[in-house]
Amino acid sequence: MNTQPGNRRIDFLGCPLDLIAPHDLMEEAKRSLAGERRLHLEGLNVAKLVDARSAPLLMGALNEAEWVHIDGAGISLGLKLLDIPVPPRRAGIDLLGDLCALAAETGASVYLLGARREVVQLTAQHLLGRYPKLRIVGVRDGYFSAEEEADVVEAIRTSGADMLFIGMSSPKKELLLQKHWQHLGVKIGMGVGGSFDVLSGTLPRAPRWMQVIGMEWFFRLLMEPRRLLWRYVRTNVAYLFLLIVAKFKGLFQRHAGSGTNA
């Protein structure tokens, strides 16, 4: 694994990843709301890592993000296997909650984009119930054509939103943020995948004990086997292979180095 001294970004199995703790990420968000550099956030999980290795556009979107945080438990486990110091993981849905709490505290405004119309509207209701001072200045479903995309971007910009959460699948959300980042006008932009489905109550979230042991993906598989089975089989097998190769490569390099020094 390539690391830069004094820099938290590493090359993890060919993907950019920032070894940043959730607390430090929230400090970055506060600085963004205060007028410092805008913050394009991306979360890395196993499926995204595997897909990005063969999708240059998705990889480009990750490389251009200010921060790529640890989203999936499999990423944390992989880092530990390769003896890389691992900061605490914060799943995207929890980070969304942290940012909404910060928005409610500071008066920052939020725009929700993605999912079906009824789902995103229920998500807005849930967030307002959880954070009564939260200002949601726009809600839009994620079903729009390429021809409508410019109007969607303009609606977000004119809303004056400080934060944008995009509840779409990969790579659509990453490419949308990358393509229109300079025109959206938001201070913080983040893809949140299927979080709206969970927050709206459309899909249940895994029990806490499954989240703690890193088995939330298995719970999602049980909920949506037709949609997720092949995806998880394909990406998990590929990820395991990448980890094994990296582990043996690291062991070989250490062994070769110790032999040279003998």
Summarize the structure in words.
This protein has one domain. Helix content is 55%, strand content 16%. It has helices spanning 22-33, 46-52, 56-64, 73-81, 92-106, 117-130, 149-159, 172-184, 195-199, 208-212, 216-223, 225-261; strands at 2-3, 9-12, 15-18, 39-44, 67-70, 109-114, 135-140, 163-167, 188-191. The strands form two sheets. Strands 5-4-9-8-6-7 form a six-stranded parallel β-sheet, with helices on both faces. It has a three-stranded antiparallel β-sheet with strand order 1-2-3. A hairpin with a 5-residue loop joins strand 1 and strand 2. Helix 2 (46-52) packs across helix 12. It is globular and about 60 Å long. The two termini are 24 Å apart.
| Adjacency order of strands in the biggest sheet | 5-4-9-8-6-7
Major sheet, described briefly? 6 strands, parallel
SS field, number of helical segments:
12
Kindly state the number of beta strands: 9
* Unreliable parts: 1-6
Give the fraction of residues assigned to helices: 55-70%
Taking all Cα atoms into account, the compactness measure Rg is 19 Å
